[in-house]
Design goal:
With 504 residues, the chain is α/β, with parallel strands linked by helices. It contains 14 helices and 20 strands. Helices cover 33% and strands 19% of the residues. The relative contact order is 0.17.
Length: 504
């Protein structure tokens, strides 16, 4: 019996596992794919923290609240921002190398991103997530006694006994059977849900499994209507996977243009191309509709080729693969589903509303993002709140009083899961996308319900999470942050609250 079962090995799960093991607890870490999987590995822009003398916590707090459009939980935002320097220190202790200023190894090279009043984004070139995963996985090897790590293990359900979460049901890849795993404490760190939409920056394992599993055991979920669409994914139909063009490219001077070269963001927001993401994504979509084009452009050609290659080696190389030299050519871009601001409701120590169950990282709803996340606050949230979860678990890790029972259930597979997932993704893109309508949402939900019949384990969590998002979107009859409704185009103070979804 391990002290902690951690489900998911991105930045949130690895932070919990490493800190808990350092403090002498035993950990079982499970992940759906093979390491490194999850969104963390793809993070480009970086991690926000006040580290420069001219920047202040007050400013980071104000920018986060402004982006969140009235719905951030202020106390949680204060915890996030004020603990950011410690979180960075912890990552560095674990071996993460952030890019420093040329000729000054003691100063971070800070990037600027949309909605931030100061340069405060620490990064490792444009491969920040890869560097974080490299360092944390290397550190994990040093704890081979304290942490058992099993890859290719998909958790299908959480186990409850006497109103406490006591473990999970797990299917190992290619196994036709599922087994029960028990632990004193369970931490959900299953990441986001971008894969529920047809076009997404997220990797294949970001299917929202954590939302539906937590929902089924009675946990409260919050703010699921706020899916953030990143304004600039590369428009390259020849690529099998969507590729992100980091917001840091706009922070570096990149300008959004239409096909005639018009800088259309000038008429939309005082921050122009660096306006908050929700505003930029909608403006791009509108310009695409007005001009009848499938994409818009991001132009960074006015910057020196040498600087572009130094700051964005990964983006430069990927675009070149697609025959776009970003030092000379405008980059074709289009919005894509990127980040789930809501999730499983947690308090300031990452405790869910279910005893024994914690949630950290993108799967959780800490309330720091409100109706729209400020860029680069997500990696930060994952570390800050995972460290806080560890503190609490240490104090409250009970010797359980429950029956262990073995489970050896035979798994039946749904027919053609890939095809069914594509149906869900298309419904979500059409009916629960960047701009929504109440009728569209209702039709979408009905279409999802029709897919329920015969859904077995592989598909059930996917479909259920999509339905939870759609149901959440139907509750908010106003346009705020990432929820943009044609029938309710204005903010309505009546709806200045969080909507919670809980199984009846
Ligand atoms: P993840 O890193 O997604 O890890 C989830 C883990 O859970 C994976 O190991 C997965 O296999 C596992 N899992 C899922 N379901 C199951 C299951 N049923 N059973 C077992 N295991 C399961 N944020 C920033 O702050 N800055 C950035 O620069 C930035 N850039 C981004 C770029 C891209 C392309 C993307 C997609 C996201 C970016 N984000 C960024 C968002 C950020 O990367 C994520 O929010 C963050 O990494 C989430 O970390 P996590 O640990 O919660 O989840
Ligand atoms: C990006 O690099 O644009 C992604 C940053 C984020 O999602 O916070």
């Amino acid at each position: 019996m391990h002290d902690i079962l951690v489900i998911g090995a991105g930045i949130a799960g690895l932070t919990v596992a490493l800190k808990a093991a350092e403090n002498g607890m035993s950990v079982l870490l499970l992940t759906k794919g093979a390491k490194p999987d999850g969104s963390t590995n793809y993070a480009q822009g970086g991690i926000a923290a006040v580290t420069s003398p001219e920047d202040t916590f007050e400013s980071h707090i104000a920018d986060t609240l402004e982006a969140g459009d009235g719905l951030c939980k202020k106390k949680q935002v204060e915890i996030l921002t004020k603990n950011a320097p410690n979180a960075i220190e912890q990552l560095i202790k674990w071996g993460v190398n952030f890019t420093t200023v040329k000729d000054d190894a003691n100063s971070f090279d800070l990037h600027l991103e949309g909605g931030h009043s100061f340069r405060r984004i620490l990064h490792t070139a444009d491969l920040t997530g890869k560097e974080i995963m490299r360092a944390l996985l290397a550190k994990l090897k040093q704890h081979s006694k304290g942490i058992d790590f099993i890859e290719r293990s998909t958790v299908l359900d959480l186990l409850m006994q006497k109103s406490r979460c006591v473990g999970a049901i797990v299917a190992e890849q290619n196994a036709k059977k599922a087994r029960a795993i028990y632990a004193k404490t369970v931490v959900l760190a299953t990441g986001g849900a971008g894969q529920l939409w047809l076009h997404s920056t997220n990797p294949p394992d970001a299917c929202g499994d954590g939302f539906s599993m937590a929902y089924r055991i009675g946990a409260e979920l919050q703010d699921l209507e706020f899916m953030q669409f990143h304004p600039t994914s590369l428009y390259a139909p020849q690529l099998r996977k969507t590729f992100l063009i980091s917001e840091a490219v706009r922070g570096f001077g990149g300008i959004l243009k239409n096909h005639k070269g018009k800088e259309f963001m000038n008429d939309v927001h005082p921050l122009r191309s660096l306006a908050p993401r929700d505003i930029v994504a909608r403006a791009i979509l509108r310009e695409m509709q007005l001009t009848g084009k499938d994409y818009m452009y991001l132009d960074v050609t006015h910057r020196k080729a040498k600087d572009i290659k130094t700051h964005f080696p990964n983006i430069y190389a990927k675009c070149l693969e697609c025959k776009i030299d970003i030092a000379k050519d405008w980059i074709p871009v289009v919005p894509a589903a990127h980040y789930m601001c809501g999730g499983v409701l947690v308090d300031s120590f990452s405790r869910t509303t279910i005893n024994g169950l914690y949630a950290c990282g993108e799967v959780s709803a800490t309330g720091v993002h409100g109706a729209n996340r400020l860029a680069s606050n997500s990696l930060l949230e994952s570390v800050v709140f995972a460290l806080r979860a560890c503190k609490d678990i240490e104090k409250n890790c009970l010797n359980p009083d429950f029956k262990l029972s073995t489970l050896n259930s035979q798994l039946s597979t749904t027919r053609d899961v890939r095809k069914l997932k594509k149906e869900v993704q298309t419904i979500m893109w059409e009916h629960c996308g960047i701009v929504r309508s109440m009728d569209g949402l209702k039709i979408g939900l009905e279409k999802l319900k029709k897919l329920e019949k015969g859904a077995t384990f592989e598909f059930r969590n996917f479909l259920e999470s999509a339905k939870l998002v759609m149901e959440s979107a139907l509750k908010r009859k106003e346009s705020r942050g990432l929820q943009c409704l044609t029938d309710y185009p204005e903010k309505n103070p009546k709806y200045l609250k969080h909507y919670t979804i809980k199984r009846k």
